[in-house]
Design goal:
Blueprint lengths: L15 H4 L6 H19 L6 H8 L4 H8 L6 H10 L4 H19 L11 H6 L1
């Protein structure tokens, strides 16, 4: 093994953030979707399903899958459930992943943390 390179994770091993219960962002959720896609391909002994194959199975535009797997678009709950089912998630795993997805959605909707209060200009000139 070359210095600085890590051994690729086996597809059966979930991303570290998921196993630690630390999926908080859209990009981390996208990593989980990519892992499910790779795992499902490994289980089938075939290449990962293409966006066009996923679109044919769901009836959705194939373009939407790019946003889901890149982490730029949060899939609606119903689509997320359908997608993870197509990617081989069982009932218990689907329930857990739905909770993770909802947590990401909730955090996205939170207002940003307040900034530190700034001192008024009058205070600065008196200092």
């Amino acid at each position: 093994m070359t210095a600085g390179r890590t051994t690729p994770r086996h597809p059966a091993q979930p991303p570290t953030a998921l196993s630690a219960g630390l999926v908080r962002t859209l990009s981390e959720l996208a990593a989980v979707l990519r892992w499910l896609r790779r795992r499902q391909a490994w289980q089938r002994g075939a290449a990962p399903l293409t966006y066009r194959e996923l679109a044919a199975a769901t009836g959705w535009s194939y373009g939407c899958f790019s946003g889901y797997f890149r982490g730029t678009v949060l899939p609606p709950s119903d689509r997320f459930d359908t997608l993870i089912g197509l990617l081989g998630a069982g009932a218990v795993e689907r329930s857990r992943l739905a909770t993770v997805r909802d947590g990401v959605a909730d955090r996205r909707d939170e207002p940003p943390a307040p900034l530190e209060p700034t001192r008024p200009a009058a205070e600065l000139s008196a200092a």
